[in-house]
């Protein structure tokens, strides 16, 4: 297996591999009830919880069922959130997208509160609502399902012959 992990850079951010040394920063935001409200888990309480999360990120990468990037600002190396793909099913060309961000960075256009609008703007289609799909913090939560198919992408992008 390759040790290669893709690093993604934008004007303000670096998306990088999450390592054991990031556990303290992960605990900081994943122990926040507001951050965890839509994450599907109880807020973390120990560094061990964060270390287990990092181990899970590594396991989904090794199983090729997902990948999770740590979100950092370009001017610092501290993890302020994570994003990635999960439940990748290669045979069906399908995966789920998820992210969470430290509340300290909400409102800065990193993981926009209007993410549903952003998803729609990028061609995703709202397919439906999964009612009471996840049980979190003592209650059932609904989950919206969006899709982006190859033919949708092809329709949105100009082809070489059309340029």
From TrEMBL:
Output the Gene Ontology cellular-component terms. cytoplasm
What would you give as a GO molecular function for this chain, any one?
A: protein-N-terminal-alanine acetyltransferase activity
Q: Write down the SUPFAM superfamilies for this protein, in alphabetical order.
A: Acyl-CoA N-acyltransferases (Nat)
A Pfam cross-reference name: Acetyltransf_3
Membrane-traversing stretches: none
Q: Where is the N-acetyltransferase domain?
A: 12-120
Gene3D superfamilies per record: 3.40.630.30
Query: What InterPro entries does the entry give?
Result: Acyl_CoA_acyltransferase, GNAT_dom, N-acetyltransferase
What protein name does the entry list?
A: N-acetyltransferase
